[in-house]
Specification:
This protein is of the alpha/beta class and 248 residues long. The protein has a single domain, classed as TIM Barrel, CATH 3.20.20. It is built from eleven helices and eight strands. Strands 1-2-3-4-5-6-7-8 form an eight-stranded parallel beta barrel, surrounded by eight helices. Helix 2 packs parallel to helix 11, helix 6 packs parallel to helix 8 and helix 10 crosses helix 11.
């Protein structure tokens, strides 16, 4: 039996809502409802990214999720004072610090821990003092992992976007080797290893070659699939495919 967990990112439920209703009375779709649908399908945690520009998830969504979910909330956010203060007030179980660019459609790469180690260490200390476990979203690079250890992170989330967008099998295999090495080094240094970005049913199986994975975070693919079969079944089917993973 696989111990690999699934975190479901529900940002794009809010994307659909914001495209039409913003936060008017009876705005739909309801983020909490679909978070609970994901949980009913087997989600082990719910991820939501509160971006500085509030393009999808809003502050009230995070508050509502934190107050009502029966699984852990993983809040993705940039390392800025406003977000840090909000996180300390709300106290989600997990924080994942991510880079953020205003014009990007989605997070385009990992945070540069090497270049911002001191600043990240200060933020991580504040969050951990508030009882929050902290992850860093990083590219599968050994130097980034070492800096993640140095600044006190509990976890890393390995960016799988380059793997997911690989143009051919050769490029994909190169990325798998990078991810395997990064996961092993992170594990050997006491970090929990998660992975996410661009993961789909079609590219999931090759990720099973990566050792020591604790959790996959999947969003857009599951929301897209939910338009066909509903989010509960989309999550359930994906979780069933994840059961083939063996952590070794």
């Amino acid at each position: 039996m696989s111990d690999l967990k699934l975190g479901v990112n529900i940002d794009h439920v809010a994307t659909i809502r914001q495209a039409r209703y913003r936060l008017e009375t009876n705005a739909e779709p309801d983020v909490l409802f679909f978070a609970n649908e994901a949980i009913m399908g087997g989600a082990d945690s719910i991820t939501a990214h509160l971006r500085e520009d509030r393009r999808h998830i809003q502050d009230i969504d995070i508050i509502t999720l934190k107050e009502n979910l029966n699984v852990p909330l993983n809040l993705e956010m940039a390392n800025i004072k406003e977000m840090v203060n909000f996180a300390i007030e709300i106290k989600p179980k997990f924080i994942c610090l991510v880079p953020e660019k205003r014009k990007e459609l989605t997070t385009e790469g990992g945070i540069n821990v090497v270049s911002h180690e001191e600043n990240l260490a200060n933020t991580i200390n504040k969050l951990k003092d508030a009882g929050i476990m902290v992850s860093l979203f990083i590219d599968p690079d050994i130097n980034q992992i070492r800096s993640s250890v140095n600044c006190g992170a509990d976890m890393v989330e390995l960016h799988t976007g380059t793997y997911a967008n690989a143009p051919n099998d050769e490029s994909m295999n190169v990325e798998i080797q990078r991810l395997k090495l990064a996961s092993s080094v992170a594990h050997d240094n006491g970090l929990q290893v998660n992975a996410g970005h661009g993961i789909t049913t079609s590219n999931l199986e090759s990720l099973f070659k990566i050792p020591y994975l604790s959790e996959l975070n999947v969003g857009h693919h599951l929301i897209a699939k939910s338009l066909e079969i509903g989010l509960r079944d989309a999550v359930s089917q994906f979780k069933e495919k994840m059961s083939a993973y063996r952590n070794n």
